[in-house]
Amino acid sequence: MVSETIEISPEDIFGLIALSGDAKASYHQAMLLMQEGKKEEAEAAVVAGDATLKEAHAIQTKFVTLEAQGKSATVGVLMVHAQDHLMNTILVKEMLGYMMNMQNEINELKGMDQQ
């Protein structure tokens, strides 16, 4: 049962949006690099994206933990928007692994070497 209402700060909400967007941009960059045959650079972009996504996920975990402790917040459209960004970034990350594997096979078939 929820016993206390808290306010989620705009900094946390905008942090979730910005970090999610930054992580997604890194994942997109990784795919572009992979298409150019730059496998090592692509993998580095994935690592960078994962680190940024971890920061975004930490913000979400804070919200979930507070609610599990019996505290809740009024959820507005901006918070829903932030959660949408995070969810979409997680989906991009999940699909990226499959896509990079396929692109690696394509690159090998084309005879593209690491550039």
From TrEMBL:
Active site (record annotation): 81 (tele-phosphohistidine intermediate)
Protein name: Phosphotransferase system PTS lactose/cellobiose-specific IIA subunit
GO molecular function: metal ion binding; transferase activity
Binding residues for Mg(2+): 84
Family matches, as PANTHER family: PTS SYSTEM N,N'-DIACETYLCHITOBIOSE-SPECIFIC EIIA COMPONENT (PTHR34382)
Organism name: Exiguobacterium sp. (strain ATCC BAA-1283 / AT1b)
Alphabetized UniProt keyword annotations: Magnesium, Metal-binding, Phosphotransferase system, Sugar transport, Transferase, Transport
Positions of modified residues (Phosphohistidine): 81
Cofactor(s) listed in the protein's UniProt record: Mg(2+)
BP GO terms, sorted: phosphoenolpyruvate-dependent sugar phosphotransferase system
Alphabetized Gene3D superfamilies for the sequence: Phosphotransferase system, lactose/cellobiose-type IIA subunit (1.20.58.80)
InterPro entries reported for this sequence: PTS_IIA_lac/cel, PTS_IIA_lac/cel_sf
Cofactor annotation remark: Binds 1 Mg(2+) ion per trimer.
